[in-house]
Amino acid sequence: xxxxxxxxxxxxxxxxxxxxxxxxxxxxxxxxxxxxxxxxxxxxxxxxxxxxxxxxxxxxxxxxxxxxxxxxxxxxxxxxxxxxxxxxxxxxxxxxxxxxxxxxxxxxxxxxxxxxxxxxxxxxxxxxxxxxxxxxxxxxxxxxxxxxxxxxxxxxxxxxxxxxxxxxxxxxxxxxxxxxxxxxxxxxxxxxxxxxxxxxxxxxxxxxxxxxxxxxxxxxxxxxxxxxxxxxxxxxxxxxxxxxxxxxxxxxxxxxxxxxxxxxxxxxxxxxxxxxxxxxxxxxxxxxxxxxxxxxxxxxxxxxxxxxxxxxxxxxxxxxxxxxxxxxxxxxxxxxxxxxxxxxxxxxxxxxxxxxxxxxxxxxxxxxxxxxxxxxxxxxxxxxxxxxxxxxxxxxxxxxxxxxxxxxxxxxxx
Length: 414
Hints:
Peroxisomal Thiolase, Chain A, domain 1
């Protein structure tokens, strides 16, 4: 029999807060983390807004010398993991044996800031390139650095599936613990890719909004939506075998009860308009969880604010869950507040699901004001809503056609 898995720790560095608590409170309040780009001069670009991390200071955890050798995406991940481990009560001592503690933390893009800085230095000669370029740049290094810091010697799987990265990381961690390969896993994702090259690349792929107004740039499911807003940050969850967590008196946010992973095999950037891949992923996750739709469902949608995604995802919810369940569910896109945190976004949304289940509050979809006939579910527009959900579904779709779905169960149910 597969072991049950629960969330006992959360940590985050996000565009709406530099801790998980601050991030959740901001999402619950409908606070917008999107603003004019400040990290570089965007005057020559057609995109002028992003969801940047604000006021981040790694100094409580990292010395200035350590910070200089580590790309921001690794810094974000280390700080979020530190918070999550302390929250879980696993930050000190031998609460879990090192060989039974794993790290499943990925990144969609990795250390692009370090790569670009050293590309510029190369113009002055190869000896100017930092010896830390490669270990700072490669996308597995957030997981590697977290493992070193927390003496995690168990399984390590830094997933890279673009925007589905950290949802896959949490799902694969569920399987590893469930099948007995680890007792606890630090899982999630991290991203720090708001740089001119990446913004121009996404924009030229016609993925980003060119709307300069931060308040309306990201409006998932709205008829006027025209592209996503780039975000950054890290989100980390500590997953733990349920009986072990309860025996040590750990606080449990929610149970991770189901996971589905599929591929569209359709297009390098566009979702399948028939939503066949995400439908299968949702059904796999729901079937594994064995959830009763009548218990009340919250859906944290991928909800990118692109014309194709929001329409096909709405269609997918109806196909996967049935029209009646989809219409009775509370749905929202927290990307309307955090922007699209790329490889970190799925874990951030899993945290939102866990907190929504725990507190009985559904975070809103802000910016949604004009109904789209193709998007006709209850998207919790504008303000948070009280709703006692028994379970939550979180979906992520990544470039390349990668789909992932997680089902969380409210603690104490089932």
